[in-house]
Amino acid sequence: MMAQQAQQAQEAQEASDARQAHEAHDARRAQQRTALFSVVAAAGLVAIKLVTSLLTGSLGLLAEAMHSGTDFVAALLTFYAVRVAVRPPDRDHPFGHGKAEHLSALGEAAFLALVSGFIVFASLRRLANEGGHEVDAAWYAIAVLVVVLVIDASRTVISLRTSRRYGSPALAANALHFGSDLLGTSAVLLGLLLVRAGYHDADAIAALAVAALVIIAAVRLMRENVNVLMDRSPAAAEADARHAILTAEPGIELRRMRVRQAAGRHFVDAVVGIEADAAIGQGHALADRVEEAVHQALPGSDVVVHVEPAIAHDLRERVSGAALTVRGVREVHNVSIIDVDGRRELSLHLKLPPDVRLAEAHEVADEVERAILDAVPEIIDIHIHIEPLAQGAAAEAEQPLAPEVAHVRRAIRDVVRDVTGSEPRDVRIRRGPDGLLALLTVCVPGDRPLGEAHDAAGEIERRVRDASPEVNEVVVHTEPD
Asked: Domain limits at 150?
């Protein structure tokens, strides 16, 4: 049955991995199709605007043609960047290739800034030379601008939707530029209509408006993408991740958290503190819960959680935590601290692998002693008892109890009823090499403090041993009633 369940779990995981790979492939294809459409559209717009500007002498159309020319170059860069950014991580790029998109967007912003300077210079020069240049606001120029407006609107919407769906900054940059093209084309169209009405400087003014749009777009792109390339922490994402962690684990010690972003994906590094004497499994489980909380707050994020021992305040916890830092120590128990004439002495039991030689075990014990004295200087003397870690043996099946020990079960039930006022939920008796082992599950009111429940369990253990000396060990598990 377990083998069948394991096989089903493996098949489900393989199906999930295949589905995720298929979805990632579809996402890459969609982004590449959108980028390729932008390249074709930008090339067509450059040709249309440039030819029309040469025929009409419109500086506004020439500015728009150069603006579209930069978009054409930027679209080529975006198409290349999208193909690079979706590559999976490799040995040289363990964090992936997402920053290629931001480099592309930064290059696009540099092109826009250069073009804006030329447009401003040409527009001011034409405005200073009053009447020195005539613009032919022909009907076909108006028709071309109307067609360009339709193209600009369509590619703006397509790029914006795709960028939001897949979180692509390069496509978002394209959408922003196409939107500025839409506004710029509208300004040039208005300028040509005013030229037809007799306002000859309207075309140069429209060119200046286009230049202003270009400058705004360039500055915005440079700022956003430089922040990403410099690994500036996104404040909103960091706040969301921090809130998710503290909500999922209210008592957690969140020591440090770093968040950065690339290609629409967040990378989160968190350092959390856990009890110094906590087991490795507990630390791993805590890290898993923190990771899941961040994934819910920032879907698709890459999360790394580092677990460190928290600052212990309880003396026994400090002792156990210090002992567990020594290599080879598997378990620490029976930690006892005794005050002798104002001095504190310590005794504890260490469990080491059973195949360790005595000389090696003694060296480990010495290292444990040094670690404890460094961490807990108020300890004056330490007594260490070394034990072998029990070999993992399968739990023995419950053996039929002989009639002469059947009274043990009755004695246990009597003790539990007397202490808790109710019947035990479960009683199991095992035969061990040293005698009988009693495993009990008892019910305690859920509103009672943990200390009282522990005292009740201790009382049950003591009285069971007194009533049945043949019981070597009693393990009591308490559950809320």
From this structure: 23-229
